[in-house]
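About this split. The held-out portion is used to measure sequence recovery: a designer receives only the structure tokens and must propose an amino acid at every position. Recovery is the fraction of positions where the proposal matches the reference. Here is one held-out target exactly as it appears in the evaluation file.
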């Protein structure tokens, strides 16, 4: 069975965290439907950094009950080496998605910096036969609710402690690159 992956990131404490939420096609619509009611009136997206602590607890508990899994890619970095750390994470992610037979990769758009990701993905996938069937695109998180899961898991994992414990049921693998 193929899967879809939705990617967002968090950087804190000298670590770059890239989170890929993996969803089976049969669960795409129902998972999006489950996320929609979590928005506050007038909001267009969930962004964990902006949420208040009690709401964060409720959100991650609801997200942890969804039929998804998350893969985290960690790379040490400084503010000056964040982009290089991200690209190392994306390179490893691409390899793993081929093994998982992923069909679609959606990355949260970073506007003009999306080109870095495209180059890394072209290089990583270019050494494979052209029939990888993995397509990728950058999308604004207001247009794709499944990106909100990666935002929440990356934030919780980076925060550590009780936040990490709340997100752990979602985490299938943590890879240091």
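Reference sequence for scoring:
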């Amino acid at each position: 069975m193929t899967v879809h992956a939705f990617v967002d990131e968090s950087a804190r404490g000298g670590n770059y965290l890239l989170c890929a939420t993996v969803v089976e096609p049969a669960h795409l619509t129902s998972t999006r439907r489950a996320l929609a009611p979590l928005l506050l009136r007038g909001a267009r997206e969930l962004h964990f950094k902006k949420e208040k602590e009690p709401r964060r607890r409720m959100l991650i508990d609801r997200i942890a009950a969804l039929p998804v899994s998350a893969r985290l890619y960690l790379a040490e970095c400084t503010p000056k080496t964040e982009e290089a750390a991200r690209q190392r994470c994306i390179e490893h992610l691409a390899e793993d998605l081929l093994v998982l037979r992923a069909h679609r990769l959606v990355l949260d758009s970073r506007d003009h910096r999306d080109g870095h990701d495209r180059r890394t993905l072209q290089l990583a996938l270019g050494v494979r036969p052209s029939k990888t069937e993995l397509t990728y695109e950058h999308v604004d998180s207001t247009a794709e609710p499944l990106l909100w899961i990666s935002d929440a898991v990356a934030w919780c994992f980076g925060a550590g402690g009780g936040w990490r414990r709340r997100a752990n049921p979602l985490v299938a693998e943590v890879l240091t690159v």
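Annotator remark: The radius of gyration is 15 Å.
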